Amino acid sequence: MKEGSRGGGGGSSGGQTLFVEAGGGLPRPSKCSTLMHSDPLIKSTSEEEFPTRHSNASAAHPGYYSDHTASTTYTQNSSADNSPFRMSPWNHQPATSSASSGGPRPGATNTTTDLCPSGTGLVGSLVREEGHIYSVAAIGGLLYTGSDSKNIRVWKNQKEYSGFKSTSGLVKAIVISTDHRIFTGHQDGKIRVWKVSPKNPRVHKRIGTLPRFKDLLKNSINPCNYVEARRRHHSSAVWIRHTDAVSCLCLSEDQRLLYSGSWDRTLKVWRVEDLRCVESVNAHDDAVNAVVIGHNGLVFTGSADGTVKVWRREELPKPAGKKGGKKQAGLTRHEPAVTLVRQDMAVTALAIDVAAGLVYGGSSDGGISWWDRGGVGGSGGCGGVLRGHKVAVLCLVAAGSLLFSGSADKTICVWRRDGGGAHVCTSVLTGHSGPVKCLAVEADPDDCGGGRWVIYSGSLDKSVKVWKVAEPAASASGNPQPPALRWDDRGTPRYDLY
Fold it and tell me: Where is the composition biased (Low complexity) (predicted)?
């Protein structure tokens, strides 16, 4: 039996469409496909070597207010303001109005009273002037950041701890396994694997590149292992390699499989044990922007073709007559289970709340659709759409009863899920001067009572900001919730009353 599936699950022929918006499902001309990717194409203008960099970690006000002063906000131009992002498809105003958008509404009353739960707000900023931040990942008090300078930086206690560098390709995705292996997805279509040195925790060594060279060489001999490449300058390519940027990564629940989505429209499955590609799925008609893992082997992918698809994983039996069953274990086949949505807007981000059984999908128009277990299982449609951003949602992450959404409008919305499934925007975090491209979350180690989270937000303004957010208590009496809180550029908490 040949290992892997080169064309499995292509399209939605085997799935069921649950939620279709008017005018949805339209084919996308190939010449416009690059406009629907999840981030603007910005070239790095930074230098290559570490010694020429300058870094700092600026602490915020003791009250966790914004560290942006008025003079900085209104007199200085950020790198993002001078970047090609201003010409990108994300820099537009959607037709629909936001429920909790950036500016004050007519007739809104603002107050400077700090009604926010204690310890909530901006903690500090991490700045390393070397490139736009495209990816972040946090584990055990360590923060990994990837940028278009090809460098991966490691931060500890808001100070630079160490760093390592790839040979090529900006770092678009980072995921860390429980055994502390770091997987990084790059613009050049490769996935690099790193391991912390047992002798020096500050040293990271590259232990592999996916696909492995010997696997490429082995598969290149057989013409049957070649598939048609999506990019124009490739007529064909070996099926185990991505032919375009690796845009997203995630690990299975048991940490045995690594999933990679790419702008080449495929979803590839890698066996973590021996770093081999075991399956390639022609998942979408345009770039794959996000991939997340759900219950019972379900895999969710979001694409620039405007769809969110659910794939069901099946374990394949060991090939007959083969010895060494351990090495042959881990063969998979992913079949399309259901298509959650077809729309004209690109799906730019996904997140999953495993405990509540909810799936969230951010779109290029600023909306966030969500589905519960009934919708995912095929018995219902979309649970609703959250409107809190003016333009594209670029990243999502869920923690506890909260959902965090970062957007090209430079803000982060904090949503609380109530018991009945309703969502309330409890606050809007501002302070970035560029689009918020990536988010990571971990439990606050200083919070003994639980319910407070540390949020890391990476932006195209070349900075990472550190926030602490406490979960507000849900209203037991059924009274209306307080209006959304917004932190202005002067570091003052403000409530917008609608």
Answer: 94-109
